[in-house]
Amino acid sequence: MDRQVHAPRHIVVFRTPVGRNLSLLSRILGVGEAKGARARSSSTLLRARHPCAAPPRVYERLGVAVADLDDDQLLRLRRHEDVAAVVSNERCFVPASPGTEGVAPETAGGEPGPAVATAPGHSWCLDMIGVRAAHPASGRGVTVAVLDTGVDLDHPDLGGRFRESWQAASFVPREVVQDGHGHGTHCVGVVGGPRRSISGTRYGVAPGARVLVGKVLSDAGSGFSDWILDGIDWAAENGARVISMSCISSRTAGEPCALVYERVAESLLRTSPGTLLVAAAGNASERPWYTRAVDNPAACPSMLAVAAVHRASRIASFSGRQMDDIGEVNISAPGVGVHSAWTGGGFRTLSGTSMAVPHVAGVAALYLEEQSTLSGPDLWRTLQTRALPLGDVRDFGSGLVQAGVETASKREGPER
Known about the structure:
This protein is an alpha/beta fold. The chain contains 9 helices and 16 strands.
């Protein structure tokens, strides 16, 4: 009978991602490096203290570690000058579905605009963000990772592109990368679905991009932070310049951002050439009655927070809003009535900031194909500079993400 290994209870957030973090944790835990441990990234496993305990892991690149700590270890780490915080290993979730807004008219938020004219066989979402049928860029040569519920490996639009190996991996214990939920397959399709879909409608922003799929959320739609950290580190190790994360943990106005994800996002953004993490602002608002603050991890200053807009260029009624000095909305993308692939070989039309995130990740891949030397901060600035302003920055951020380059010379974007 297999022993059940419990998830580590704590995450250590170091002040900087430096090599001495490994020796610090090893010394305080009183354990050395695990011998013969198989790793899919540059992280280092330490020996587990007992058979049912998860082995401590130090993510040198990310500046964090996961471990089970007793009270004395917890106190020593929190007092150490190299440690910013020690927090609980919490769950993240697929954002709750906002319902059937795709077929209902919007009634609040933003300046009303005409509905986007759609070319035959082309998603209105792509037309809205400037990805025309003859768009010259496809994301070729750029690696984008989608960290979600996995992917349908046998989907006719996606099959053949992924095998459970270095390009598609599960970090969920006892679950394979095959998507038993559907959310991940939908997001993968928006990032890199083919130019010619069997559905008759193109929906993929960057069909030429090299897409990595990390299953970090279970088939039930949730995952511990250590699973997500595994996926982020693996994606960075395999060359991802953009990481799409459509998962949330709820946050109310005035609550702090998630320190774990801020350390990780800042560390990757500032490396060379830099990796940009893109996250969902959340679906907890219900305009015109009330709005909710941007959820974690999107509330982190070093993660690009994405709001959802309607086909008529209005803010989606459910989309999270900046309601404090912490959780900004940085940019917007289509997120109401979005057509894409679904597990089981089919297609679905969904709404949510989850659907907006992969549109931004796909456009980032198009930019990087054109300018591969863009650093992480430069990519962030370029996305915001080229965005089309739509209204209140607390709702829309800099505006609607745009794939076309012609808008770049027309206005200046905010400095980051």
